[in-house]
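REQUEST ID: PR-0412
SUBMITTED BY: lab tech R.K.
PRIORITY: routine
TASK: structure prediction, single protein chain
INPUT:
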Amino acid sequence: METTKSMFLSLLVSFIFISCCYVSSVKAALSFDFYAASCPNAELMIRNTVSRASSNDPSVPGKLLRLVFHDCFVEGCDASLMLQGNNTEQSDPANRSVGGFSVIESAKRLLEIFCPGTVSCADIVALAARDAVEIAGGPRIQIPTGRRDGMVSIASNVRPNIIDTSFTMDEMVKLFSNKGLSLLDLVILSGAHTIGSAHCNTFRSRFQQDSNGTLKLVDQTIDTNYADELMRQCPVTAQPSVTVNNDPETSMLFDNQYYRNLLAHKVLFPSDSVLLSNINTKKMVEDFANDQQLFYVNWGAAFVKLTSVGVKTDEEGEIRRSCTATNV
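STATUS: complete
OUTPUT:
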């Protein structure tokens, strides 16, 4: 066990060394003190906004974490998902269940009072997700800022750029690679499913309705007792608004329970289960299941990479006055 863990850590160090070139090239225009002079309390105001919202609604951290994924994978981390209107990213069915928008808008309104025209919605989205993880019990990390807001938001760009819950390993690896993210990043960022919830239709493919109108398990990669519980929570008659916790054990806590659930075959999505079908990703899952600190350290590095995907800086984009619309 110690030998295999040492080998994994050695590979991890090599990966971080190799991947730093990609990250540093993106960070060149971002910095960890971007608002030090222009809006020194920006991060504190965002953190307090997320904290208050989470106190009122414990589901907020999961919503904000999902929001940053759906934003960054389409057009890069530029808050294009925040834009409202016909045929915008929000109008695609895959984004209709995304939440947390009101928290971002609340933080933006506050920042516009104290630092007008200074802090981008893109940075607020990234920082709010970062804070959501810590508020849910996860690690506190630093991320660079200086992102600018995009001006393009098109519904047709959504589906080719986000993970579907039915994706195979090859499909996920290809999409992550297109975003500059590695196999290790895929396993680590999948750990976001340790918090949050999902609608019944997102994992319905694991079941089939029989002639009597009841559900029957057809996916043999899921624990049968867990499947029975899911069918109880999501019967055929369930309303579209019904949701199930991603993590059946510690649903509101950002920890490494997701990986333990995965090894026990108690995860919601087929795209989670396939992580056990590859010898390399299965080994990573086992290591993170056994060592929460290892997961936390790697989460920080992977999250920085995620929130650096396709960022717009300097003369690209703009600083929106409102996150819901481009400046006129």
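NOTES: The chain is about 45% helix and 5% strand.
REVIEWED BY: pending
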